[in-house]
TrEMBL record:
CDD domains: GT1_Gtf-like (cd03784). PANTHER family: EF-HAND DOMAIN-CONTAINING PROTEIN, GLUCOSYL/GLUCURONOSYL TRANSFERASES. It holds the Pfam family UDPGT. Keywords: Glycosyltransferase, Transferase. GO terms for molecular function: quercetin 3-O-glucosyltransferase activity; quercetin 7-O-glucosyltransferase activity. This is Glycosyltransferase. InterPro entries: UDP_glucos_trans, UDP_glycos_trans_CS. Belongs to the UDP-glycosyltransferase family. Gene3D superfamilies: Glycogen Phosphorylase B. It comes from the Eukaryota. SUPFAM superfamilies: UDP-Glycosyltransferase/glycogen phosphorylase. Its EC number is 2.4.1.-.
Amino acid sequence: MSSPHIIVVPLPIAGHVNPLVQFSAKLVKNGMRVSFIVADYYYNRVMSAIAAEIQGEEDCHVGLQSQVKLHSIPDGLGPEDDKNDMPKLFLSTSASWPAMLEKIIQEINGSDREGKVTAMIADLHMGWALEVADKMGIKGSIFWPSSAAFLAVEFSIPNLIDQKVIDNDGVPIGRQTFQLSPSMIRMDTEHLPWNLNNDLVTRKKVFDFFFNIGRALKLTNWWLCNTSSELEPAALTLLPNLVPIGPLMTPYKKASRQHLSEEGLSCLNWLDQQPARSVIYVAFGSLTFVEYKQFQELALGLELTRKPYLWVVPSSVITSTKFSNIYPDGFNNSLRKIVGWAPQQMVLSHPTIACFVTHCGWNSIVEGLCNGVPLLCWPFVAEQFYAKTYVSDVWKIGLAFESCENGIVSGGEIKNKLEQLVSNEDMRERCSKLGEMTMKSIQGDGQSSNNISKFIQWLKE
């Protein structure tokens, strides 16, 4: 009998691609073939990431890389469009990808070498892909890479309309906070998932897109989520059909560095030279843009701590500013290292990391806590505010910044919060304990581990 052949369809944004890369490595380890759909501009990055993930998985060998094949598709955006504009990506991929995906599946099924596609795993925001799978007689499953709390908001749209929290177009009926259940975190209407763009027409299109996600869910009984019952018991109770399989993380303490880029390797080599628990790690993901004035205050605050820090500043931040130098005058701290990209899980597992200044993307939060690294929260949009509430109010494993009246977080506030966080041993201990509990869920007889085993068995049926 030939191996099951799984086609994986992520939303082409790093925070959605990376968890499915990690999950694909687990599938390969369990005897699957994987065809991974990727936007053309992500091809090389995903190829390297898959090689590193397979190397990191215990009992895997390099030959298993041949069991993963990437298929690149144009993202449907024009050359003038921002590749990180999520509303545009939602709309462009749902319009242009279905026909191309169907063609790829037909080509795979017509090949003697690859074996026919037997199942599909699609990102929830690529749920239309399950309609393609259903049309072609392929069983499918949905994968959600973020928190169950965020997903619960999308599933609760009809209730939010009935309770007059939002109108029929998703517009908040006045700013207010709400709870989806008595045990859930409080949420703010200003941070609803579809409020990703100031253009009201685009907001309405994205709201309708989320509202119609339910069609895809009716095509499968497998709703997978990169979370665990240790992290989100209330949200998982609210969504009983959601199957936790997280945290999807590779044990990078054992992983080889051989697949790293020169820049990534330089980060780890620099960390090797620092004292234990001394380094502040600062990274805001691939989508976050920090305004010039705020950027300068952040640089100032880091300098004021007089501690070593590793700061990820993507090249897009530098090229997007009209100023010739985005750093403050006199900014020359010899203790710092600034890079355009860092191998984040490897960085966070390094013993020299003292704390993590993060935008509160779900992957970053989970990677931080699973490595026992206290978090300093700086959310920018939507789900990041929910994650911040978890960190500072529910789990109590980190702090959050307070901004001035003009919305700027001052250099002094940054310095003070960093000093508070680094010196708080109780918070570090809570973070370490929660991380250990969460990691146990994907090991041995843990709930997430058992759920993955059941899902793999279903794939093989």
